Give the backbone structure.
Amino acid sequence: SAVISQKPSRDICQRGTSLTIQCQVDSQVTMMFWYRQQPGQSLTLIATANQGSEATYESGFVIDKFPISRPNLTFSTLTVSNMSPEDSSIYLCSVYRSTNTGELFFGEGSRLTVL
Amino acid sequence: GDSVTQMEGPVTLSEEAFLTINCTYTATGYPSLFWYVQYPGEGLQLLLKATKADDKGSNKGFEATYRKETTSFHLEKGSVQVSDSAVYFCALSDYTGGFKTIFGAGTRLFVKA
């Protein structure tokens, strides 16, 4: 199984600021996924990050608000820009555990609270 | 489009009770089906999976059978423990030029001693 490390694990942020979340995987992977889990809600895919190309964003998410970097095959960052209290969520990094079935492996998440 | 519907929670059970969490899905293709579990303060982890009709996934005493005729993947456990208290997510992964994973809303389970 892959080991996924996310930083920070949690943070409290002020409205209007930006925060960058880091995701490090212990093996090379083609695709990395960023999910958002709002309080008491299910997971929503924000974007897919491929190395060497622009991230692919899902409907309702835009690059200006959630810029993503993918400099190599083991690392990605997600920035939450100009935060508001509505951005308070757990942000999860994920990779395929199996490319045959689409099974996912998740990091422990970054819990952001915006005041 | 594809979707997953699971029973609303929270579900509260006493220790050693029988657990069923219902999950139904709609999909255009032939998806793989999963149950993920999220323990308090942690990320999601795979609990079990089934990749084709009539497959039964099982792990840690939990079971779910892929029923194509009823488009269902209900999670069951014969005797729950306090340590099973968590949020359970039903999910499907369908390949349409690339895998797309759809999650259900999640069901929170509380098990009382």
